[in-house]
Amino acid sequence: MEFAEEKQPRNHFEKQAVTIYWLAKTLEMQDGITIDHVNTCYVGAKWKRPANFENNLQLTATRKGWIDTSDGSNIQITVPGEDLVVHDLPVKSD
User: Which of 2, 19, 60, 83 has the CB geometry, 3.0–4.6 Å to 41, for a possible disulfide?
Assistant: First the structure.
């Protein structure tokens, strides 16, 4: 996944934000993003998946606020998540 290589996410929180952003903005999936879609992106990017994917997505939502998992059949990127992907990734070295 070229977009993921460009953004260089470093952990599952960032990988999930990048993945959901890409699905929503590049593929224009405004509705219906599920854990299966995110899982497929992880496989495509050759990233190791978290042991409990659903719980890890919820942690990204609650700890970082970058995604909204309140509807598991319609996971959304939030404004802070968009800002992370657009403005903060890849992390610039000082």
Answer: 19
